[in-house]
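Why does residue order matter? Because the sequence determines the fold. Keep that principle in mind as you read this record.
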Amino acid sequence: MHSLKNVRHHLKENKLRSVRIIVTGKVQGVFFRKYTLMKANESGVQGFVKNLPDGNVHIEITGNENAVNDFIAWCYTGSPNAVVAAYSASRCTGL
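Structure:
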């Protein structure tokens, strides 16, 4: 039998969240998109990543709260050769 607290925790873990992330810095030409795909698979989020004409990277993902938070935290580091200056994450309507 699950307590109400456990049920709430389970619901929060499985609630889907969608975010749009813009990553700035030296993030093109350093395999950032490749590593983003690997991290997304590892974290269990779905979405897409693309280079922007201004040199930034645009990411949109959907996943459970914990997976999305883990992915967002990774964005500050990115690929081994990336130099992330900043990132911004905002809610979006989903994929």
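The chain has a mean pLDDT of 87.
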